[in-house]
Every structure is written in C-alpha cells, then in structure tokens.
Amino acid sequence: MKSSLYLALAIACEAFGSVMLKLSDGFAKLLPTIGVAAGFLTAFFLFSLSLKGLALSTAYAVWSGVGTALTVVLGVLLFQEALSPARLSFLLLLVAGIVVLTRAGTEAKSDGPDASAGKTP
Amino acid sequence: MIAAYLFLAGSIVLEVFGSTMLKLSNGFTRLFPSAGVVAGYGLAFYLVARALQTLPLGMLYATWSGTGTVLTAVVGVLFFRERLNKQALLGIAMLVAGIVGLNIVP
Predict the structure, then answer these.
(1) How far is the C-alpha of B89 from the C-alpha of A58, rounded, in Å?
(2) Which residue in the set A48, A89, A98 is minimally distant from B28, CB to CB?
(3) Which of A43, A118, B34, B48 has its CB surrounded by the most CB atoms within 10 Å?
(4) DSSP helix, strand, coil percent of chain B (3-state; round to 5)
C-alpha cells in the first residue's frame, strides 16, 4: 500500500539524517549538516503523506520503533558502536514488538469480527 | 533539576501536539495544522535541547520516545477514533519496552 511505502521511505530518510548528524560532528561540517536538514525535512514530509492512509497510533509507533532499531544497527555497522548482550536483547524485543504490531488485525484471534488494528474507520 | 524535567514533559506534550497536527495537515496541504506542526516540533526540539543541558541523553531519549509513542497512541484512539486490538497494544508495549531498554541499559 502506498502509505506504507511512504512510511518506509520516511524512516529511511530519518536514518540517513541521523547518520549525517553523527558525521556532521556537532554541525561543524557543512556537507553532513546539509544532509541532516535534507534528511529530516524529507522524512517529515513523507511521514505526513503516509498519515493520509494510516492510523496515527500505529504509524507513529512503527516510525519510532524502526527508526530507533535502524539507528542502533547503523551505529554498530558504520561507527563500530558497542552492543552489549542486554542491549541486543532489547533490540530483539523492539523488533518483535514491531512485528506483533504490524501483523495485528490480520490474525483470526483478535477482538471480534470487526476488529482492526489501528485503522481509521 | 526540576526545570529540566518540566522541559522534558513540555517537549513530550508539544511533540504529541505536533504529530497530531501532522495528521490533520493532510500531507502539509492544510495551512493551520501545517503551522501547528512547525510550531509544535520547533518548540519541542528547543525544550529537549534545554533539558539535555541537565539530563543524560539515554534517559532523556528513552522517556521522550516511550512516553511520546504511548501518548500518541492514546490521542489516536481518543481523538481520531482509531482502534487498537489486544495484539496491537501488546506490540506497542513490547516496542516501547525495547526502546526504553536500549536507551537506559549500558
């Protein structure tokens, strides 16, 4: 669905912005700083487009969750940041939560025949 | 110290306000909600920056993100009449727990 695609792109742009934020060295370097602005502004705009077709409660939770998880993973891969066993466990809990949330409402065992997880009526 | 917590609380409320305006802006096509987005998020980021002068980043981000996500879900249900079944609520709880843990655990 188009809205989900916008959400995915918004999250990717935000992750890009976060990486640029790290590379900008406290907004000291020009090119990364421009990247921060471009990344976050585009992310916001794309997120607003996704909200035309998604419930705010689920879209925001997915944005928040995937964004955080992606930032952690990119920190490890690109900046060799440490990931303790405890933090890895919480990362897995986060990802599991995203899966549970995004699959809610499509399974048979929800509350009643008309239940829909986070869809606007 | 109390001021820092007030800044944090204020920034969370303003961010939820900004997200609500974002939904109402219909893709930034409606003027008043769009202005609300800019004002809400702008002020929220300023307050976060002020709170960061005192509070540690991990704890601040965990509280901000966790509380913000929960409050936004509440707004979604109460204001936009969205529906969250038990599985959706469980997913959000797990997600929030994961974000909080990631930011407060060393």
Answers:
(1) 10
(2) A48
(3) A118
(4) 80, 0, 20
Nearest-angstrom CA–CA distance, A93 and B26: 33
Note down pLDDT in tens along chain A; length 121 residues.
899 999 999 999 999 998 998 899 888 999 999 999 999 999 999 999 999 999 999 999 999 999 999 989 998 999 999 999 999 999 999 999 999 999 997 443 434 444 455 655 5
Q: Where are the domains of chain B?
A: 2-103
**Which residue in B has a C-alpha nearest to residue A109's C-alpha?**
B87
Q: By the 8 A CB rule, do A67 and A11 touch?
A: yes
Q: Distance between CA A46 and CA A42 in Å, rounded?
A: 6
Instruction: Give, as one character, the DSSP assignment of residue A24.
Output: T
Q: From chain A, pick out residues whose CB is under 8 angstroms from the CB of B18.
A: none
Nearest-angstrom CA–CA distance, B8 and B4:
6
Q: Are A89 and A69 in contact (CB under 8 A)?
A: no
Whether this model's ipTM surpasses 0.85 comes out as yes
Residue that has been written with the tokens 């419930």 in this structure: A55
Residue B82: its chain A contacts at CB < 8 A?
A: 55-58, 118-120
CA B14 to chain centre: 8
Q: Contact B68/B42 with Cβ under 8 angstroms? A: no
Tell me, rounded to whole angstroms, the distance of Cα A121 from its chain centroid: 24
CB B76 within 8 A of CB B49: no
- Token readout for A91 is 């990362």
